[in-house]
Design brief:
The complex is a heterodimer of chains A (68) and B (424). Chain A has 68 residues and is mainly α. Helices cover 41% and strands 0% of the residues of chain A. Chain A has a domain at 29-53. Chain B has 424 residues and is mainly beta. Residues 1-27 of chain B have low confidence and may be disordered. Chain B has a single domain, classed as Porin, CATH 2.40.160. The chains are: A mainly alpha (68), B mainly beta (424).
């Protein structure tokens, strides 16, 4: 898994163009956030965590629960 | 030439928090104002199983120093009934409440559900996001506390982010620690001990137990081009301690497939489950956000694997369709599939359940079996005045088990949200 991760990271770095600060207008929009709605995301993750056996991926920690 | 460089430097600084802004709350509020997100979620499951009401409030502010602070409170009120792990039988079944003082009966042919399920949860959390070392690095510290009548969880996290490559690349390293305490109603059941008839003892001898979880995550966020952002995370999680569900049981069957009658005095034909006291998980997560002419696509994939034998694949897709004037419609699709835990069972034989033969671990929890979950949802949001937004979203979640002996699950959610900001 390490190798895949490293390869993908290097591939990314080599494949992408450098976007200058003045060209980041679209990237700066709230709708372009990785997580546009923290509340929706947290509520969804809580539901899935209590009904499925997997968790995590997006970040660390995030409130334990006796539901699983 | 010099002035060009000056302008470039200024623009670089102006966009300094861009990547961080995309990794924390997308605060539209002006500096110094509180950006408040509120929502109430209604959750309900088919066949009168669990229903929940969950109000949330979250407040975020960027200080004059460029720090971002967040406070959040979640309340969770659950009622209804939940599967116990026992199988449907062709006779009426009698179960004892966790307290050992009462019983409930399930008619022949019906799925055993424990309708004493009732809980209230309060979760409080906070985070502080600040510049560290220089303008290119940030540290996010977080803490959370959640409390249910039988469960307490305390957690801390630290996330270090560093920008490279003209702020087109951000590396992150995060660590999370969580310490949980469980005090189940009636106490901690003894693994593989029989459920007892009401008022004859409980086989729940310990009062409480605990577990700890350590998470480590490495991530990279990369600007691919003017319209595309990509994220990769690699996560490692180690849990140790009590990981059984103290309310879950397993039916014990004879060679004909009927509930066993070879029982000790006051024993019922169900035994308490037992899971390993450690778990190692690894996750690989990929997300891409892409800006079309107006609309935005947000798609992610997660691979999860652990030493319990659970491998899962999750694909998540949001499409934000701009309606104009700040309103949007956002369909959501999610596909999830998991393999069963190595110790997932639907029932045990008399020999397996007998104390003499030792099976180390077994659980009939439907969440540890092989299944697929499909989610379809849609969200609508519209601005209200210049400083607030109203939203509503509805989702249908459908869980289909591979083994028909486990119960399927259909649930429905509807959520109302109201976001606003104000200067304090």
């Amino acid at each position: 898994m390490y190798k895949i991760f490293l390869s993908l990271s290097l591939l990314l770095l080599s494949a992408c163009t450098t976007v200058q600060p003045w060209d980041k207008d679209l990237l700066a929009k709230p709708s372009m956030a990785l997580v546009p709605s923290e509340i929706d995301n947290a509520l969804d993750e809580h539901i899935y965590f209590s009904k499925e056996a997997s968790m995590g991926g997006q970040g660390v920690g995030g409130g334990g629960c006796g539901c699983n | 030439m010099r002035s060009t460089k000056k302008i470039r430097d200024k623009l670089t600084i102006a966009s300094a928090t861009l990547l961080q802004a995309t990794s924390v709350t997308a605060a539209e509020a002006p500096e110094g104002a509180w950006n408040v997100n509120t929502a109430v979620l209604f959750y309900s499951e088919n066949d009168g199983r669990v229903s929940a009401i969950e109000p949330v409030i979250s407040a975020t502010k960027e200080t004059a120093d460029g720090d971002i602070i967040n406070y959040k409170a979640v309340f969770d009120s659950l009622t209804g009934a939940t599967p116990t792990g026992a199988l449907i039988a062709n006779v009426e079944q009698t179960f004892t409440n966790p307290s050992g003082n009462g019983e409930y009966k399930i008619p022949a042919g019906e799925l055993p559900l424990d309708d004493t399920f009732l809980d209230t949860r309060v979760a409080l959390s906070g985070s502080w996001n600040t510049a560290i070392i220089d303008d290119y690095s940030r540290l996010i510290l977080g803490g959370n506390l959640s409390k249910e009548f039988d469960y307490t969880s305390l957690g801390f996290s630290a996330n270090f982010l560093r920008d490279f490559n003209n702020r087109n690349t951000t590396f992150s390293t995060a660590i999370g620690l969580s310490s949980d305490k469980i005090e189940p109603s009636g106490g901690i059941p003894t693994a593989f001990a029989n459920m007892k008839t009401a008022k004859t003892g409980t086989n729940r001898d310990a009062a409480d137990d605990s577990k700890t979880i350590t998470d480590v995550m490495f991530g990279v966020t990369q600007v691919i081009n003017r319209r595309t952002l990509m994220q990769f995370n690699l996560g490692f999680s180690e849990s140790s301690g009590y990981m059984n569900d103290p309310y879950k049981i397993i039916s014990v069957l004879d060679t004909n497939g009927d509930l066993t009658t070879a029982l000790g005095v006051d024993d019922l034909p169900y035994v308490y489950e037992n899971r390993p006291d450690s778990r190692s998980r690894q996750t690989f997560f990929w997300k891409t956000v892409h800006h079309l002419t107006e609309d935005v696509i947000n798609v992610s994939y997660r691979y999860h694997t652990d030493d319990w034998g659970i491998d899962s694949h999750t694909i998540d897709f949001h499409y934000r369709y701009e309606l104009g004037n700040g309103s949007y419609l956002q369909p959501h699709l999610r596909y999830y599939s998991q393999s069963a835990a190595d110790f997932s069972v639907t029932s045990l034989t008399e020999a397996e359940a007998a104390a003499a033969t030792s099976i180390t671990y077994a659980s009939a929890d439907y969440r540890l079996s092989e299944f697929v979950t499909n989610t379809f949802g849609v969200k609508y949001a519209m601005p209200v005045g210049k400083t607030s937004e109203f939203s509503v979203r509805a989702e249908v979640i459908s869980q289909v088990q591979n083994d028909a002996l486990y119960p399927d699950l259909d649930s429905f959610i509807i959520q109302f949200g109201y976001d606003f900001y104000f200067d304090d």
